[in-house]
Model the fold of this input.
Amino acid sequence: KTGWPALLHAATIYSRLNGDALVVPLKFVVPEPTEGNCEDWPWPEDLWGYRLGIQLQRVRLSNCFLKDGRAAARRRELDALGIVWNLRKQSRNRKFEELEQPSHIILKFTE
Done:
């Protein structure tokens, strides 16, 4: 499976498995099942080996699949999955949220 249908299918499954925001690691490749987990494996065989992280980066950085008359509809589909268009901003926001957590307060004592 290639092109937009593969990207949307893989992104939909990834989003369903991983929560609200569609933030896929760059190196993420759709995995094949291992022995013992074939029956409830969420990824169809035609997506095994699909480089979803790289494909989503291509969408974000070079508007891959978003350059024709279907671009607006495709953007809406990705938005509905929770795609994060600006990963740097998302990363910055996450770091600030972590800093606000009490578990991240470091106290240094000097004598």
About this structure: The CA atoms of residues 59 and 110 lie 50 Å apart.
